[in-house]
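Researcher: Next entry in the queue.
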Amino acid sequence: MSAPSRRLVAITALLAASMACAARAPQRPTGAAMPDATALTAFTAATRHCRPLRTATAEIALGGRVGGDRIRARLVGGFAAPASMRLEALAPFGAPGLLLTSDGATTTVLFPRDRQVLRGASVADVLDAMTGLALGADELRDVLFGCLALDAATGLAFAGGWQAVEQGDVRVYLRGGALAGADARGWHVDYASATAGGRTVRVRRTLPRGAIDLTATLTQVQTNVDLPAEAFTLAVPGDVTSITLDDLRAASPLAPARSR
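Model: Structure for this entry, 260 residues:
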């Protein structure tokens, strides 16, 4: 297998569980919204695990499609405030397919099997190039762990036991007092099966390059444990070849077929 082909496998194993055609609309309340101050209290209770969220780690199982490709993958992820992140795409045997680290200032993407590395790009640019998921490390953490920050929100109530809090272009939904979903910047996020051990998160959006429908099942969740600073940096071997964001885009499942 050529290096670009191996890199495509690693990229699709990292952060893509998406849909080939138009993403189905998420379940949302219907009818008129009424002001509801109790929604703010419900939101505070549903996100109490976020105050504070210094660190978070989880095993992440992904499945679905990105562009036209069906994906299944296993990741190990770690996050630390304010904007540090580490993701490893696990392989059945041997070295990880991909390592992505950022300490908030320096981001490194390493493909150990291809001896290739990307340095200097932002997390949002890297994730956008690979999967269309243009989120920074802090934004990805907040989405995965249900910690969208709203500090001056308005509370709303809908029929069917739905509530919402909204601020600007962000609206977070609750149902039965539990976090149910969020709409922000064209993204639709759904939360389900939130327990002490983990949660299932689904992220959807249709882009000009293709539709994204990510489903991430988080298990072995740990929060506010001490993580060493070196977890968010990467020692890169001296014999690797540097690649660019354009190389990542060309290997992405969202790239046109002629680019692959």
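Model: The radius of gyration is 19 Å.
Researcher: Noted, moving on.
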